Amino acid sequence: MLTRFHHVALICADYPRSRAFYTGVLGLSVIAETYRAERDSWKLDLALPGGGQIELFSFPGAPPRPTRPEAQGLRHLCFATENLDAAIAALARHGVEVEEIRTDPLTAARFTFFADPDGLPLELYEQPPEA
Length: 131
Fold this sequence. Notes:
Blueprint: E1 7-12, H1 15-25, E2 29-36, E3 41-47, E4 53-58, E5 77-81, H2 84-93, E6 102-103, E7 110-115, E8 121-126
C-alpha cells in the first residue's frame, strides 16, 4: 500500500529565522516557496537528502509546542549522518548547541539531539555508508 516516505510538515513561529536554519544551517535545498495571502502564511518545501521533504509553514498565532520531547504526537525528527563529530562541529559553527553524544544500546550507533529555532527536537544519528 505505501511506497515511500514523502514529507513531514512543521509549523514555525518565525518564518525567516526557521527558513535560515533549515537552509543555511542544515543545508536543505528549496524545492518551492509560496506565500498564501488568504492565510497570511508561507509554505516552504525543502528537499531531504535521499528523498522525502520537509514542508515548513508559518501560521499567525499558532500555539507553541506544549513540552519537549515527550508530548503526544511527533517526538522528534532524525537525520542520518556518516560522521557525527563533523556534523556537530558544523552545527557549532552556526551557534547550535547539541546534547552529549549517546550510544544506542540496540545498534551501538552514536547519536545526539539539538533543536530547531522553535525548540523542535532534532536528532543526528551516525550511520556508516552502505557497503
